């Protein structure tokens, strides 16, 4: 994983020691380089020479791309298949959805989370998959298939999974927090970071109140969003990928984020630590999907199949720190990641974990509206307006008294 690679580099570990942990290619595999091999019974070159470019849209920092001594799985795919990859990133499911909905760009492979997969299915935004082109679906553990958002996996193949939790700076936080309520604690005023997307932020406030992270009514949305508005006085910034620089640089005391990214941040700043709050957390599955508008569907299915190859899946999860749904990949991981309570939490955490569901349109619209209103609400501005109103009232009252006194004096004369 990224954090381990950096730690090994700092200790001066040899490349030979690291290579001993890599998966070994089978005799009939196609060896791409010392790190990657793929199945030899799949036709990887059938699009060679056709000048195909796949537009792949993924989360930031969410693939082994050759940086920080990682394996470049994208360039290896291009060399293997002759297909070019135009790889770009987004920072939230909502950003992905907005970009897709606007029609401003055309993508062939996207990586939405569970509830967003469900939303896109309902709106006809995804293409059904032809699994004759994705035989590596068989490598996915059955416990990661058949979720409510796509019960037959008609439209989605799991990529990674994970949980949310609290990452905190041990030099700024005396005791490990055990509750989401730490994000509302006034002692950390202007030292708290918060998710900059409505669904994750709502989930935390809902759990703090003892509610489900999936709202059941408009009234429930309003109640929970009020809790987020009450939090604003302690929030330094609403962030997504910006959290890396802020937490690694010691610019904030604590923040909610995804467990896989927490491992990366902890590797870069040993003062950081991570906990799963006792009220419960979000358990999520990020998937690979093909938009209904893709012009290269079969080539996109080849890319998804490639991403499920054992050596490719190993390279990705080893680098980004997120949890793998591929059984063979988990078996190859080093014990410090395989048994990490952050990446692979135990029953105590998972028994209270909850998965996002696709919300009804009415509730989803209310959540979006209330989120926008909450974000635009300025507490300091509101306080000044009260002061201005009171000063104005006093001046108006004084003016009226002066007029009455002046009239009385005039009448006397």
Count of strand segments = 11
The biggest beta sheet is recorded as: 4 strands, antiparallel
Radius of gyration: 26 Å
Quote the average pLDDT: 89
The secondary structure category is alpha/beta
The portion of residues forming beta strands comes to 5-15%
| Weakly predicted, low-confidence segments | 1-21, 381-394, 408-413
Please state the oligomeric state of the protein chains shown.
single chain
How many helices? 16
Secondary-structure element order, as H and E? Answer: HHEEEHEHEHEEHHEHEHEEHHHHHHH
Q: State the end-to-end CA separation.
A: 93 Å
Helix content: 40-55%
Shape: globular
Give your account of this protein's structure.
With 413 residues, this protein is α/β, with parallel strands linked by helices. 41% of the residues lie in helices and 14% in strands. It contains 16 helices and eleven strands. Strands 6, 9, 10 and 11 form a four-stranded antiparallel beta sheet that branches. Helix 1 runs parallel beside helix 9 and helix 7 (218-231) runs parallel beside helix 15 (361-376). The chain is globular and about 60 Å long. 41% of the residues are buried. Residues 1-21, 381-394 and 408-413 have low confidence and may be disordered.
